[in-house]
């Protein structure tokens, strides 16, 4: 066991030494002219271009420049003039100045820095490049040009293995069709996918998207947004727990706790799933769909399984399908109106609303309550004034039936083929019933004592209301009826044929619109993960463990993690030291033909 442990120790030691030797290999170089100037650059070689540029090669990275100061013993160089750096076939960089430490494989470039990758080009005034981490980093402002967009930020970090940029602080993505502003954005070059974090907007001529966490495909022009997200169109605002947006198709959808706000018509629709087609000016809402519109300071609510709204702002048409429920309440809370039907059609321009039974189901027959008055028929039309939005009149077609509960017992009933009602200040004050009319009324004196039951037939009747109660009834043509004492009126004859009191269905509040309906099962939202928190670019190091050599032009304090700075390096006057006559052999170390530029 002891021998095995000792062998293992030496094996690990050998691997460590071998790996260290592999990492810290020497920098190779070629130069047309190689000089020494111990006074100005102790221990350094001064390399310069004559016909060919100075050339460096180290562990897969190649550098070309016009002039360089090379500290051979330190395995470190500083390069000047027309610098080109290349790593394999995937990374190319140009700059005015650069430094490179062969031991730490850490580089710095400044002055019109441009790094080119197959899909993107990065431009900045100063760039750090860690070859071991395979990461590039700037914090003095940069611009990345993609095949579809231009991205700028104060701070940027590029992860070569993932082909990902992480932009922070004043992030802007400019595209011919839109502009993105974000606090933080992760961008994948190969796919063009962008992940947005923090308050972010996507602004175009036709829409504005806001989110605090989102995804956007910059090439396919579609996105997915969560956390306080909303899409603003010209006259609509779409909100929801999650939003999908497709710019090319002018389409957006929302899932869970959605709201669609019509900013022009002062109306909104809510539910748990919605689709918006901008070019068609249409909205589709389902899962507890509820439309609400302000009418003359009162709010009209419409609920159904599905709601569709189409048309331009001044010509909106609302359609509701299946189990439609409506509720309207004035500011006092006393004058209410509610109703039910199979389907609903409402035209904003004409002010016409239709309650209809397109499925022909028995429980889909329209019913309307105006205060204590129940009105039913095969279809009910409500007419509003398009300008004031106040109720003007109603029409009931076929099998019209009006029922009002008597103040003490029984039901007052009026029926016929067609019913016309008139409103004043949104309150029903007159009803006319035509063709084959019948009435059954409980007649009372001034002290509210029952004096008899009146059952009458006529061609038409006219009813006047006071405070929503029947006050007077006028009979016209072929009147046939009489007043019968209650004791002489059989109980089984006190309901006209077709009588159907639906008072238990009456909606008395906004909450009643959903009474008896199960809560919809919400879709599970696919979240967007939070951004990775990578280690600091400049790792904490000992004071004598420098990323760049002590001869670097950078102050060691620069190689610390901090928010923002500018690292524009002024060109160093090294040309004077290179203007040395060729006859001065003492300064000359060697003159080696350089490798040709590739």
Automatic annotation (TrEMBL):
Residues of the signal peptide: 1-21
InterPro entries in alphabetical order: OstA-like_N
Domain Organic solvent tolerance-like N-terminal: start-end pairs: 49-183
Domain of life of the source: Bacteria
Pfam families associated with the record: OstA_2
Coiled coil: none
Keywords recorded for this protein, A-Z: Signal
Protein name: OstA-like protein
């Amino acid at each position: 066991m002891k021998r095995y442990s000792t062998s293992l120790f030496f094996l690990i030691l050998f691997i460590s030494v071998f790996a260290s030797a592999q990492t810290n290999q020497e920098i190779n170089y070629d130069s047309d002219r190689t000089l020494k100037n111990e006074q100005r650059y102790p221990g350094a070689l001064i390399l310069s271009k004559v016909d060919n540029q100075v050339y460096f090669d180290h562990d897969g990275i190649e550098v070309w420049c016009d002039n360089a100061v090379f500290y051979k013993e330190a395995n470190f160089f500083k390069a000047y003039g027309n610098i080109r750096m290349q790593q394999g076939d995937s990374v190319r960089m140009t700059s005015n100045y650069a430094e490179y430490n062969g031991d730490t494989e850490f580089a710095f470039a400044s002055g019109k820095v441009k790094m080119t990758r197959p899909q993107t080009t990065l431009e900045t005034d100063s760039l750090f490049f860690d070859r071991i981490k395979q990461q590039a980093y700037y914090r003095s402002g940069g611009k990345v040009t993609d095949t579809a967009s231009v991205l700028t930020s104060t701070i940027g970090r590029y992860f070569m293995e993932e082909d990902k940029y992480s932009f922070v602080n004043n992030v802007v993505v400019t595209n011919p069709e839109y502009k993105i502003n974000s606090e933080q954005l992760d961008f994948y070059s190969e796919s063009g996918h962008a992940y947005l974090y923090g308050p972010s907007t996507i602004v175009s001529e036709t829409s504005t998207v806001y989110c605090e966490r989102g995804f956007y495909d910059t090439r396919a022009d579609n996105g997915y947004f969560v956390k306080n997200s909303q899409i603003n169109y010209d006259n609509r605002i779409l909100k929801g727990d999650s939003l999908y947006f497709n710019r090319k198709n002018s389409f957006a959808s929302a899932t869970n706790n959605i709201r669609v706000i019509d900013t022009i018509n002062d109306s909104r629709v809510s539910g748990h799933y919605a689709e918006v087609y901008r070019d068609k000016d249409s909205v589709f809402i389902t899962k507890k769909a509820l439309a609400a519109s302000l009418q003359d300071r009162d709010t009209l609510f419409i609920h159904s399984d599905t709601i569709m709204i189409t048309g331009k702002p001044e010509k909106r048409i609302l359609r509701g399908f299946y189990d439609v429920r409506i509720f309207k309440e004035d500011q006092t809370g006393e004058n209410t109106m509610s109703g039910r039907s199979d389907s609903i059609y409402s035209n904003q321009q004409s002010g016409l609303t239709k309650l209809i039974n397109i499925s022909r189901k028995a429980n889909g027959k329209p019913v309307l309550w105006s205060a204590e008055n129940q009105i039913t028929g095969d279809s009910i039309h409500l007419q509003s004034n398009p300008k004031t939005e106040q109720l003007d009149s109603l029409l009931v077609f076929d099998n019209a039936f009006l029922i009002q509960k008597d103040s003490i017992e029984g039901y007052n009933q009026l029926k016929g083929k067609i019913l016309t009602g008139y409103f004043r200040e949104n309150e029903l004050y007159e009803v006319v019933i035509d063709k084959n009319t019948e009435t059954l009324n409980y007649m009372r004196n001034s002290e509210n004592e029952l004096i008899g039951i009146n059952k009458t037939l006529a061609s038409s009747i006219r009813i006047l209301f006071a405070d929503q109660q029947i006050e007077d009834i006028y009979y016209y043509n072929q009147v046939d009826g009489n007043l019968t004492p209650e004791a002489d009126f059989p109980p089984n004859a006190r309901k006209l044929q077709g009588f159907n009191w639906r008072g238990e269905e009456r909606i008395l509040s906004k909450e009643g619109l959903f009474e008896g309906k199960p809560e919809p099962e919400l879709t599970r939202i696919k979240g967007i993960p939070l951004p990775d928190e990578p280690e600091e670019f400049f790792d904490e190091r000992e004071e004598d463990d420098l990323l760049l050599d002590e001869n670097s032009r950078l102050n060691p304090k620069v190689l610390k993690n901090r928010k923002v700075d500018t690292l524009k390096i002024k060109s160093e006057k090294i040309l004077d030291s290179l203007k040395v006559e060729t006859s001065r052999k003492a300064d000359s170390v060697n003159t080696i033909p350089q490798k040709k530029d590739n």
